[in-house]
Amino acid sequence: MANMWAGRFKKEENKEVNDFNSSISFDSRMYKSDILGSIAHATMLGKQGIISKEDSELIIKTLSLILNDLDTGVLDFDYEAEDIHMFIEAELTKRIGDVGKKLHTARSRNDQVALDIRLHLKDEVEVIKSLICKLMNEIINLAEENKYTVMPGYTHLQRAQPITFANHLLAYAYMLKRDIERFDDAKKRMNYSPLGSCALAGTTYPIDRDFVASRLNFDGIVKNSLDGVSDRDFCVEIASACATLMMHLSRFSEEIILWSSWEFKFIDLDDAYSTGSSIMPQKKNPDICELIRGKTGRVYGNLNTLLVMLKGLPLAYNKDMQEDKEAIFDSLDTVKMCLSIFAPMLSTMKVNKDNMRRAAAKGFINATDLADYLVKKGMPFRDAYKISGTIVAYCIDENLTLEEVKLDIYKKYSNLFESDLYEAIDLEKATFRRTSKGASGIESVEAQIKDLRS
Asked: What is the predicted pLDDT for the residue at 275?
């Protein structure tokens, strides 16, 4: 395929240079966006009288046929083409001759690619949001089933206070809710059409940029032509949203890895979502979670790639910016893959409620409730804190839990202790008494579930 700029050059491009320069191997995925953008552009050219109505309609009809042929596999990509834009234009010209060459009037590949990637990323964002919602639903359903499941809550990976498994799970649901908001926010700023910026300085043709923007469901146009072709902030923002989402998935994965170990045994992963060992027959490995944890670093790297690629670029377009696509596409693909497998892994997971309850009982995680008991009897909190800590030390020496200590022993530490203290330090009651908004109490958890479902 001859290069579109062949008139300026006396020599053909070196084959290795062409391969190095080519991007169709990865930007071919934008073919639908490229064709839809071209249809909107051709419609505008005809409306404005820049090309004839007949030529405009022929171009639109042929582009629609090319789109259908690519969708159905009738037409294959030519990987000798430099990029998806050149491939589509060459195919158009092959089918309708010189009329096809009129499509690129009042347009540059600079604003064309800026348009294509915005259109493509808008669609990708909606796919990711849908996958996040599916995962959120699985989390919420699991929380609904575990409103009464008591487990130890941790700080510093040390047992801290009793919580419900539902409340722990819902923390991740709220993280994912914020992730959806981040993608929405990035999409909102991205939703402006750069087409009409041309190479960098606009055009002398009487184009209607707002018409094209409206046809492509943009909220408006990018108002500066140099900004239109050189802006890739939206790629950085979406890559950042992907990185934050992966960070949340990675944290959740780390907990599942811990919970599925013999040391915790809070959950069992389904066999279909685990792997074994080639040498140790007893092993059941949480490889999915480990891969998600590992792929998080990859998505972080893509964000850094974009930031470093852009940091020293003068206005307007530079070939460096071709590197935006592989980085952002890889992040999107990785995120979609991880979300798609996380949801069914979670829905098939078995929760070992009794193991969670036993772990909660052994960690003195009701010591704060013991201190609160004394405070409610009139003792200053710091004094109550010291007495409770001293009793915990006694329990450790005697291999007892707080519930197993006799009342006469408690009275040696304070006369404020009465028989009602056992109700105060009962694990379930201590957990469900936490009724402040966002806490582990049943009403609070149900309010969170209702909020998230809405």
From this structure: 81
pLDDT in tens, 276-293: 777 887 778 999 999 999
Q: For 369, list phi and psi in degrees, rounded to 5.
A: -65, -30
* Domain end among 357, 379, 414: 357
pLDDT-derived band at 90 (thresholds 50, 70, 90) equals very high
Among candidate residues 25, 130, 261, 277, the one labeled active-site is 277
Q: Is the dihedral of CA 214, 92, 87, 203 positive or negative?
A: negative
Alpha-carbon radius of gyration of the chain = 31
Which tens digits make up the pLDDT trace of 189-229? Answer: 999 999 999 999 999 999 999 999 999 999 999 999 999 99
Name the region of 378 (left: φ>0; alpha: ψ -120 to 50; beta: rest): left
Pair 432, 441: CB distance under 8 Å: yes
Active site residue 214: no
Residues 198 and 331 in one domain: yes
From the candidates 156, 419, 436, 454, give the one annotated as an active-site residue. 156
**Residues 344 and 400 both lie in one domain:** no
237 within domain boundaries: yes
For residue 418, the enclosing domain spans: 362-453
Q: Which residues contact 448 (CB under 8 A, 6 or more apart)?
A: 143, 167, 170, 173, 174, 438
- Domain match, 197 and 225 both: yes
The reply to whether 228 and 342 lie within a common domain is yes
Quick one: average pLDDT of 394-409?
93
120 tagged catalytic: no
Q: Looking at residues 303-311, what average pLDDT do you find?
A: 97
Query: In CATH, what number is assigned to the domain containing residue 294?
Result: 1.20.200.10
* C-alpha–C-alpha distance, residues 417 and 193, integer Å: 71
If one counts every other C-beta atom within 10 angstroms of the C-beta of residue 308, the result is 11
| pLDDT score recorded for residue 361 | 83
| 239-253: pLDDT as tens digits | 999 999 999 999 999
Q: Give alpha helix (H) positions in 348-366.
A: 353-362
Q: Are 245 and 132 in contact (CB under 8 A)?
A: yes
List the structure tokens of 297: 């670093």
Report the pLDDT value the prediction gives residue 283, as an integer from 0 to 100.
78
Buried b / exposed e over 399-416, threshold 16 CB at 10 Å, is eeebeebeeeebeebbeb
The number of folded domains in the chain is 3
